[in-house]
Structure formats: structure tokens, C-alpha cells
Specification:
By secondary structure, this protein is mainly alpha-helical. Helix content is about 60%, strand content about 5%. Helix 9 packs across helix 10 and helix 14 crosses helix 17. About 40% of the residues are buried.
């Protein structure tokens, strides 16, 4: 009975080898080939090519072999590449590695070229040969090299441009089998196949897509969807029309939101109207605008959350990103980090939100911040539909976009938006002033300097209009940023801190060889002030231990300063405790390394530093303009101080509760001049700093009600009372004194 069963298997196997059978195209995404696909292709038919002839006498069979299958193979050896591939597949399944090696050598003897390699892979599937490269396959290196050669040559055949053009031509054939074979060829090519199909439709004077192309778009899954979204950014109407026909014809539900967003924007001609009607008929009914908008926002929020998870991960070359050519007529793909691929999903979701018909709320501001970030990073300029372009010229909407860019830490978008906000200076609305003042504390130098430039121009404009006393909350912080701007340097500046002078000197030498301007610090006592004042910091290196504070505390104190908030921190130490390692790894902008790093080690550290910076660069022209503006502003301020200096009586110290309360009343008195009111608020701050809060808590807390009541309508009161409230909170330990205006 057992012999009969084995004989049946042998008969079935060789019946399959000797009888012609349709071959199966390989799934480009790794799936095993199906059993019921009738794909007709030239390379699918078994080929016995090769200059060498395979003879049974060359196989060196074992006369004591007990396996009937192996005996039958040796007795009637396969003659073609396709049959040899099936022999390899069968032996690999039963883990007869010596027999796998025998038939791989037979394939090599027969000869391998692109055509025969593609035939073998199509016959048994790419996974068969891929599995032979793994550790489980007990094969010699020479045998694995044959398997790898087969895969490489088959891949070259699949992505050969001439082959792809032939497959695309087959997809327009009258014969169904030929069309299916063309689709299988495009499918097996993977990303190059997707690009070839879309590029043909985007070319000048291109013919509209065939029905099987439309159907193929849905069957090529998410990579085709990502490519289609990027291709739809082309400025050519004929290309976009073909791409729309392709998506509508696919009848794939995953394109519904994208099509709704596109059709919700301004229609270009009658072709678009007819396409929209065809899409509505295909989907049964049109999506409600509110529903589509909510779904688009939800997808954008999800995509942003996924992107933020992997944003700082150093996972080079783990994804594929699509790139639209400069002429807008072709696509190409490139390897990228996982974060870059996730970012493309974020941008695609933002497109749907922006193209929808509700561009005035916070969600569209988030989408606009994403688009501005994308355009600034890749140097793209894109026109927006409808009134969205004019909305960016309204300070209310610009402030919403700024808030979104800050929330999601989109540095490039912050840089673009703050420059736009800085133009609203005549008159300057309070929301604009608040954003500009907040931007003075940004960890990104270009954002700080653009905000300072806007405030300086506002002050100069007010003074030219006869208002020499321009005061606002955060004026002292502006002076600090102006001081930074006067020290701008074209060289990249890094800080080194550590208790060992020899290690600091070693690091300094390595960094100076890479054209860095290096500043050494022996302790945190000098490092922290340098992070609060001075020029832009490119990165900070903590070398070994610092005596007065541990590395984690030092990193946290650096992060609390404007210049160190986003600067990459490289911690170089021989050993770290589990607690230090855990806390430092929670900071995505921290690089860990050993000491002392040599040349190659430093190169790797610098690569990781560049990876996590992701900050707008200080362009040379901007630096010159900002520096000149800051120097001019300081000179004018010095001249005004000299011209208006008068001998004044030293004000009495407010060392009693009554005097502190009187100072608040003077600051709130609208009948007094603004300089007198400002002086009263300054004396109050000095009094609380020196003597503490002497007045009752009830009286102090009552000032919050006054701030909320009078502040919105009285800008001067809002600023002065804000300074007083800051001092009160600092006296209670709720705020740091360094953030209180003097």
C-alpha cells in the first residue's frame, strides 16, 4: 500500500513536469503564486535555453537511494529551466538539501540568463529560492550563490523598461488572456511596474487608461495608492484627468475620500463634471461633505500620531517614497527612512482636508501647517484652492496655523508662519503680539530671529508714528534675542562640557577638523548661561561626568533653555546606570556614544545629530539681514536712552503691604502717564523679589479678575498687570523668576 502511494505521487509530479501547463506570475509583495491564474506571457513557457546539455550521467546518483521520487528524478532528469525549478521546489519542501544542491548545480550547468531566471521564478514563486538563502537551508555558499543569481536576474527581467512597456501594451490588447498576462507582468515588477503604468498615463499626449489598468490600480494595493496621490500633484491638467479616470474606473472604496476632496474643489471643465457623475453612480451616492471632512480629519490625526512615534527613529532605508519629477510628467521611487514614508501619509491626509470645503477651522490649520512644512523641506510651491490662499493673509488664521505647527513640532512650518505673522505690525493685534513674543522662546533659532525681526520693526514703526514708549510683555526677552542676533556667525557652533580636560581637548580637536566652532565648559555653572545667551547652538556634547550634577539633570537643565530646547545632545560616557540610560533614551534628541570617540565614531555621531536636527537652516542672507537689523535696533535704542536720560529721584522701597498695594493701584490708574504706570509695575516686581509678597492673598488673587476684565480692552493694563501677576506667581513658586520681566 505504501509503495502504491509513493508511486502515485511520482506519477502526479512527473505528469506535471512533462505536460505543458500555464505558469504563474510572482506576487511583487511576497505572496505565493496562485493556482488558478491563467496568465499568458512569453517568459512563462518552459525554456531549455543554455549552451550546456544536461545528461543523466552527469547527476552522480546514489545506487542505494530509497526515495522513489529522487530515483525517478535521477532516472528521468528534467530538461528545462521550469522543470528544474520544480525539482528544486519539491526537494526543498522535504528538506533533501543534497538533492536541492544537485538540481541547483544542474541549473547552473544548463546556463542562466534573465529570461530563464524569470521563467523559473514564475514557475515556483520567488519564495522558493528566497528560502534557500536563509539559515534553515543547509546548503553550501556556492549553492546559495546560484539561488541568489536566479533571483537577481529574474528581478532585472521583471523591471526591465522594455519588458514593462510590452506589459503595458498587452494591457491594451483585445485578448483577455494577453491583458491578464500584461497585468501580471506589471504586478510582478512591484514599484517599477506601478511607476511605469502611471508614467505612461502622465506623459504628454497619453491615451486614456484601459479598463484593466483601472482594475489593476486597486489590486496593486497601498503602494499604488501612495504613488497616485503624489502623481495627482502634477500641474498638467491632461495628466490629472487620466489619473482621475484611473481612480474612478477602479471602483476601489479606498479612493473615495480622495476623489471627494478633489471633486469638492473648483472643477476645471466638463470632463471633471462627467467624471464626478460617473463616480457618484459607481459608489451609489455621494459622500456627505461633513462626513468626508470628519473622516479626512480623523485620518490626518491618525497619520500624525503614527509619524510622531517613528519621527526620531534611526531606521535608514526601511521604506519607499515616491517623487514627482520637476516637469510633472513622471514618478520615481527611492528608499527612505520609515519616518519619511509615514510623513507622505500625513501629507496625503492633509491634502484631503485642504481640498474640502471647510477651510476656516482648527483642523484645516493643522493640515495647512503640514503642507507648509512639506513645502519648506522639499522646496515646493503649491497653489491652494478657493479662498484658502487669502485666509493665510488673515492674522486669525495665521495664528491658528502657528499654534498647530507648535503643537506638532513642525519647525519649518513655524519658521514660515512666524515670518508671515510678523508682517501684521500696523496695527499689531494682541494675538499676533502674543505669538511673536512666544516665538522668542522657541528652541529653533530661525523662528526666534524671525519673531524678533517682526517685533523690532513694530517698535520702529510705532516710534516713527510718535509713540516712543512701546511696552509689551516679553520686551526684556526681546533684548536677549537681539543680543544673540548681533553675535551671529556663519560657522556652526557646538558646546562641549565635561570634567576631564583631556577628553574635552580630544573632542575639540575632532570637531574643529570638521569645521565646527567649539566652546569648552568645565561645569554646568558656565554651560547653562551659555545656553541662555549667545549665538545659535548646533549641538551639545556631554563628555563623561560633570562633577556638580549628573548627566540626566544636566540634560534636563539644558532642555529648559531656549537655545538648548531642540539642540541635539550627545552623551559620551563609558558606562551609564540603568536609570540614566532609561531617562536619556526618553529624549528623542539625545545621541548616546562611548569615549573617547575616534574619527569613525565621530562620523557616526555626527550622522545621528544631523538626523535628529530637522530644523530650518540659518541661511547666510537671512543671517546678514537679521544681524544688521539687530545692530541698528540696539544703536537706535542707545541714542534714545542718551537723549531722554534725566536725573530722577530714587523711588522708595515698597517694604510694606500698603506700599505694594499702592503700586498696583498706580499701575492700573489710566489717568497716569504710561511711563509712570510702568515704573510702578517695575518697582512692584523688585519689591516682591526682595521682600516677598507682603499683601494679603485675597488682594493678590483679585488682580486676576481685573486682568480678565480690563485686559482684553486695555493693552497697556494687560501688559503691566501681566508683569505683576508673574511676580506674584514667582513668589509662590509657580513660576521661575528668570521668566518674569524686570
Amino acid at each position: 500500500m505504501r509503495l502504491l502511494w509513493i508511486s502515485s505521487i511520482v506519477a502526479l509530479f512527473f505528469g506535471g513536469i512533462n505536460s505543458p501547463s500555464p505558469t504563474v506570475a510572482q506576487d511583487p509583495f511576497g505572496d505565493a503564486p496562485g493556482d488558478n491564474v491563467n496568465a499568458l506571457s512569453e517568459m512563462a513557457s518552459p525554456s531549455g535555453g543554455g549552451a550546456n546539455k544536461l545528461d543523466a550521467s552527469d547527476l552522480n546518483g546514489d545506487v542505494f537511494e530509497r526515495s522513489a521520487v529522487v530515483k525517478s528524478l535521477l532516472a528521468r532528469p528534467p530538461k528545462s529551466h521550469a522543470d528544474l525549478a520544480r525539482a528544486v521546489q519539491l526537494m526543498a519542501r522535504v528538506k533533501r538539501w543534497e538533492e536541492v544542491s544537485r538540481w541547483l548545480k544542474a541549473i547552473d550547468k544548463l546556463g542562466i540568463d534573465e529570461r530563464s531566471a524569470a521563467t523559473m521564478v514564475d514557475q515556483v514563486g520567488g519564495k522558493t529560492f528566497q528560502s534557500l538563502l536563509g539559515a534553515m537551508a543547509q546548503l553550501e555558499a556556492s549553492d546559495k550563490a546560484i539561488a541568489k543569481k536566479i533571483l537577481d536576474l529574474a528581478n532585472q527581467q521583471r523591471i526591465n523598461p522594455e519588458s514593462l512597456r510590452k506589459h503595458l501594451a498587452n494591457m491594451r490588447s483585445q485578448g483577455q488572456a494577453v491583458r491578464i498576462a500584461g497585468f501580471r507582468g506589471i504586478q510582478s515588477a512591484g514599484y517599477p511596474g506601478i511607476a511605469a503604468m502611471l508614467n505612461e498615463l502622465m506623459s504628454a499626449d497619453a491615451v486614456q487608461p484601459s479598463p484593466i489598468m483601472c482594475e489593476a490600480l486597486g489590486k496593486l494595493h497601498q503602494p499604488a495608492k501612495d504613488a497616485w496621490k503624489v502623481a495627482m500633484r502634477t500641474p498638467h491638467k491632461d495628466a490629472r484627468l487620466n489619473l482621475l479616470i484611473l481612480a474612478v474606473g477602479s471602483k476601489d472604496p479606498k479612493y473615495n475620500l480622495d476623489l471627494h476632496a478633489i471633486f469638492s474643489s473648483e472643477l476645471e471643465d466638463d470632463n471633471w463634471v462627467s467624471l464626478k457623475n460617473a463616480w457618484i453612480q459607481a459608489t451609489g451616492n455621494a459622500i456627505a461633505s461633513n462626513t468626508a471632512f470628519e473622516q479626512s480629519n480623523a485620518k490626518l490625526e491618525t497619520a500624525l500620531a503614527e509619524y510622531r512615534k517613528v519621527r526620531w527613529e534611526d531606521d535608514a532605508n526601511t521604506g519607499i517614497r515616491w517623487i514627482l519629477s520637476d516637469d510633472g510628467r513622471s514618478l520615481s521611487s527611492m528608499e527612505c527612512r520609515n519616518a519619511e514614508q509615514q510623513w507622505e501619509s500625513v501629507v496625503s491626509a492633509a491634502d484631503n482636508v485642504i481640498l474640502s470645503s471647510q477651510p476656516t477651522n482648527r483642523d484645516s490649520a493643522v493640515a495647512m501647517a503640514v503642507k507648509l512644512q512639506h513645502h519648506a523641506v522639499h522646496g515646493i510651491h503649491e497653489q491652494y484652492p478657493g479662498s484658502l490662499e487669502t485666509l493665510l493673509d488673515r492674522f486669525e488664521y495665521a495664528c491658528l496655523v502657528w499654534d498647530a505647527a507648535v503643537t506638532y513640532d513642525l519647525a519649518y512650518a513655524q519658521s514660515v508662519v512666524i515670518q508671515r505673522i510678523g508682517r501684521f505690525i500696523e496695527p499689531m493685534p494682541l494675538p499676533v503680539q502674543d505669538r511673536l513674543v512666544a516665538a522668542l522662546n522657541s528652541g529653533y533659532a530661525p523662528v526666534r530671529y524671525a519673531a524678533a525681526a517682526g517685533l523690532m520693526q513694530y517698535i520702529q514703526l510705532e516710534e516713527s508714528n510718535g509713540n516712543p514708549q512701546v511696552s509689551f510683555r516679553g520686551r526684556s526677552r526681546l533684548d536677549q534675542v537681539v543680543e544673540e542676533m548681533t553675535k551671529l556667525s556663519l560657522r556652526r557652533r557646538v558646546l562641549i562640557v565635561g570634567g576631564s580636560s583631556s577628553l574635552r581637548s580630544h573632542m575639540r580637536t575632532l570637531l574643529e577638523e570638521n569645521s565646527f566652532e567649539v566652546e569648552e565648559h568645565a561645569s554646568a555653572a558656565t554651560l547653562i548661561p551659555a545656553c541662555k545667551k549667545g549665538t545659535t547652538i548646533d549641538s551639545i556634547y556631554l563628555v563623561a561626568q560633570v562633577l556638580e550634577v549628573d548627566l540626566v539633570q544636566l540634560a534636563q537643565r539644558i532642555r529648559a533653555t531656549p537655545s538648548g530646547a531642540t539642540a541635539p545632545i550627545s552623551v559620551l560616557a563609558d558606562s551609564l546606570s540603568n536609570r540614566e540610560l532609561e531617562l536619556l533614551q526618553k529624549d528623542p534628541r539625545t545621541v548616546l556614544g562611548s569615549i573617547p570617540p575616534e574619527g569613525e565614531g565621530l562620523v557616526e555621531i555626527l550622522r545621528q545629530v544631523r538626523l535628529i536636527q530637522q530644523s530650518p537652516t540659518l541661511e547666510e542672507t537671512d543671517q546678514i539681514v537679521w544681524k544688521d537689523l539687530a545692530i541698528q535696533f540696539r544703536n537706535q535704542a542707545a541714542q534714545r536712552l542718551i537723549a531722554t536720560r534725566r536725573p530722577t529721584l530714587t523711588p522708595p522701597l515698597a517694604d510694606t503691604p500698603l506700599l505694594q498695594k499702592d503700586l498696583i493701584l498706580r499701575a492700573l490708574n489710566k489717568e497716569l502717564s504710561l511711563p509712570e504706570r510702568e515704573q510702578a509695575s517695575q518697582i512692584f516686581v523688585q519689591s516682591v523679589r526682595q521682600f516677598g509678597l507682603l499683601m494679603s492673598s485675597e488682594s493678590a488673587d483679585a488682580q486676576y479678575d481685573v486682568y480678565n476684565d480690563r485686559g482684553p480692552n486695555e493693552p497697556e493694563t494687560r501688559v503691566l498687570l501681566g508683569r505683576i501677576l508673574d511676580a506674584i506667581e514667582a513668589s509662590r513658586g509657580k513660576k521661575d523668576w528668570s521668566s518674569v520681566s524686570p
